[in-house]
From TrEMBL:
Annotated GO MF terms: hydrolase activity
Record lineage: Bacteria, Pseudomonadati, Pseudomonadota, Gammaproteobacteria, Cellvibrionales
Protein name per its UniProtKB record: Metal-dependent hydrolase
Keyword Hydrolase: yes
Keyword ATP-binding belongs to the record: no
InterPro entries hit by this protein: Transcription_regulator, YdjM-like
Chain ranges passing through the membrane: 63-81, 93-118, 130-149, 156-173
Length: 344
């Protein structure tokens, strides 16, 4: 989730349990601790482009690390802010731990994947029930914690927690409706998907991206889930087959190892870029939900030596044409005809 939302939710939980005279301190400490786990983005390497993918949302986001992270944040924040907000060390640690605890669970609600159970498991948990940026979720929380600080009453934050749980629960309902539409689309094409996922698009809970896997391809489609479920057919991309697609690649080379690492990060949703046969893309993400237009991927070099890493790339095409396509799908103004509709 974006840092602002993490800070807002991190502030909401400690504010909800704070005494009136401690609300400001609880809010500030909780907000800062709620953002702290994302400091793992600083773990990078100038020679290994995929290192940050392995460590982002890893140990700092583990449920088992919450007491440690909360303690560290509490000690640091108390030294900096404790006297200013008249907090004793115990309260600083409690408020910090509560704020820290919200971070990983909220991240797991998005689509990126969070290692909640590290070091026992490296599985990337993604419940796919809210976008990584969603003002409809964040702004009401922000209003509630502002009112709580203004009135010095924890009841506003408690209402905010109810709002957060209700919104995330609605996301689960909408995700399940979108997945049902995805299975229906696949059946209409006489496909039997190996895997199928519905992912929320930017800042809403009614336009979803459907990604499903067959033996040879990944298919992506857009679904609008309102009082009826409408869907717009999308594109497909050829699934990665390392042996067939890169016959020149040495089995024990660094590039081969990097493909395996990127496969883990992408949960297996790897495809060959339609525009470049040497690029491997993560088929799960795009700005326009029924497009194969990756946000990131890796490029292989046939002339690389055995020790050379792949090249990691990102693409953020948010130009006018792409924005117009996205908003057309979001509000039902897309020029492409809706391919079908199913009442739920």
């Amino acid at each position: 989730m974006d840092p602002i939302t993490q800070g807002v939710l991190g502030a909401t939980l400690p504010q909800a349990v704070a005494q009136r005279q401690k609300i400001i301190g609880a809010t500030v400490v909780g907000a800062l601790a709620g953002m702290a786990p994302d400091l793992d983005v600083l773990i990078r390497s100038s020679t290994d482009p995929l290192l940050f993918l392995e460590f982002h949302r890893q140990f700092t986001h583990s449920l088992f690390f919450i007491p440690v992270g909360g303690l560290i944040c509490g000690l640091v924040l108390h030294a900096i802010l404790g006297r200013r907000f008249q907090l004793n060390l115990k309260l600083s640690i409690v408020f910090s731990t509560l704020g820290y605890a919200t971070h990983a669970l909220l991240d797991a609600c998005t689509t990126f994947g969070t290692q909640l159970f590290w070091p026992l498991s490296s599985v990337r948990v993604a419940w796919n029930n809210v976008s990584v940026i969603d003002p409809l979720f964040t702004l009401p929380l922000l209003v509630f914690i502002y009112l709580g600080c203004l009135k010095r009453r924890p009841g506003f934050a408690q209402v905010g927690l109810v709002w957060a749980l209700a919104y995330l629960s609605l996301g689960i309902v909408q995700r399940d409706r979108a997945e049902a539409a995805g299975w229906a689309m696949a059946q209409q094409r006489n496909h039997e998907p190996i895997n199928l996922e519905a992912k929320p698009t930017f800042a809403n809970l009614w336009l979803w991206k459907i990604v499903y896997e067959t033996e040879d391809y990944f298919y992506v489609d857009a679904v609008r889930v309102l009082h009826t479920t409408e869907y717009v057919a999308g594109e497909k991309a050829k699934k990665l087959n390392v042996g067939a697609d890169f016959p020149w690649l040495l089995e024990h080379s660094q590039q081969a190892k990097d493909i395996a690492r990127f496969h883990w990060f992408s949960n297996g949703y790897l495809a060959i870029d339609n525009s470049d046969a040497n690029r491997i893309i993560d088929a799960r993400y795009s700005l326009v939900p029924n497009q194969i237009k990756p946000l990131w991927g890796i490029t292989l070099d046939p002339n690389a030596d055995e020790r050379q890493h792949v090249i990691y790339f990102t693409e953020r095409d948010t130009g006018p044409a792409q924005r117009a396509k996205f908003f057309g799908l979001l509000f039902g103004h897309d020029q492409a005809p809706v391919k079908g509709a199913m009442d739920r």
